[in-house]
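Async update (no meeting this week)

Hi team, since we skipped the sync, here's where things stand on the single-chain job. The sequence we agreed to prioritize is pasted below, unchanged from the tracker. I ran it this morning and attached the output directly underneath so nobody has to dig for it. Comments welcome in thread, and please keep replies under the output.
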Amino acid sequence: MGLSKPSKMPSTRWLRSTGRAASEPRARPPRRKLIAAGLLGGAVLAAAGAGDGAAGLSDSDGDGLAVVVEVTGLLDPVMADHIDESVAGAAKAGATLLVFRVDSNRSVVSDGRLAELAGAIATSAVPIAVWVGPNGASLEGKVAQLFAVADDVGIAPGTSVGDLGPPLAALAEFPVAWANQELIRTQKLGWRQLISRGVIACDTLDINDLRERYREAGIAFDPQTVRVLPEEEQCVAPLIGDYLVDLNHLGFASSVVEVDGQPRLEPATGVQFRGLSLAHQLFHTVASPPVAYLLLSIGMGLLLFEFFTAGIGVAGVVGALLFILAGYGLSVLPHNTWALVLLAASMVAFGIDIQTSVPRFWTGAGMIMFGAGTWWLYDGVSMSWIPMVVMTGAVAVAMFSGMPSMVRTRFSTPTIGRDWMIGETGEVVESVSPDGVVRIRGALWRARSNRATPVAAGNPVKVVEIDGLWLEVEPMEGAARDYREPRRKDSRPA
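Output:
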């Protein structure tokens, strides 16, 4: 268990939540938004619009620069490098504060790499804070152990922290930003429990503290209209802006201004939001369990489709690209090799029945292998049941109906495995005179008459030969005699 860092400075969040008498009923939540939240919220939108590199706020005017870096999803090699580069680049950029906005519950990098990142964070010349948000975010496992070595950890309402797992020996030398760490070693606590059980450090303000702050702001103080917020409201930050203006002890400068007769915090430190480049974001996305699985399944399906076409087409190129991206994702994610073999074997099984144009035993066996490979593909990382059910259903429809029909009507192979069709009966869909379309066992086939007699739509026919991609048929009644028929009979063995 690591050492605990000193608790952070008294919260100033009271500045955003005053102005209602304690006895007055709350028709709606108290006023929480301030100028800082508005300005920083605009910067978030600007960062999202930029998509790459950085998005800046207003000039710092000599009060420093805070850099906000987003860490979401699995902590994979791409994200690990992003964290490392952010820590190293903060000092070079002249930043006075580095803040990680985190929503991550699993690491797929080695413990050695985590130790390197923890050392960089703990020894950084620039103070580092971590905000778990927004609502619904979580910080778990080894990722939580990593970011615990930061100088400060804050949370948003609706978030959770915990399930740290066994302590990493390489991180034991670093103090942690929260208290009572063993409470979240084997369980995950919600934001209210984190505050009530003292895991998240927070020194609250009382009415006397508020009176002094009003005096400093030059605003008349009326104890009948000023409400002291409950502890859980003082110790959470709904927005990243709310958290930033509470980091004055780490060098984030704010000034008190009067807005509608109430004191509000206005940020004086400039803020810059940084994210992954488009290329790095692509590889980070590919390395998520559902995306890698979907890319692998779709890629293999397109390659199977391409196998039954003439030449190399768009499906083959796209399928190969998706397969390569899936390969990268699976190289990062912990997976079961035998499950991957099952998925590949299922495509071989599908191909056996597709070339005969009729779903039979191998299609059913392929679905069993595909389902098992899907369920046990990953080892230790979770995947929602939604992509599994959707993709398994899509493959079932494609292999039982779509692919066989497509191959029969457009991209069929020659006569391999189709001798069983000779003697089958069906119905003419488009008049065979001399070419047309017939339906055999519910499937449409290109057909030609093996004699001069045309066959109108709706009439029954019988398959007598297979000629490459075509079926040769004859009417069930009234057919002209085929001059080849005696020869076929004579050529048959006794």
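Quick observations from my side:
The longest strand covers residues 65-72.
The two ends are 89 Å apart (CA to CA).
Reply here if anything looks off.
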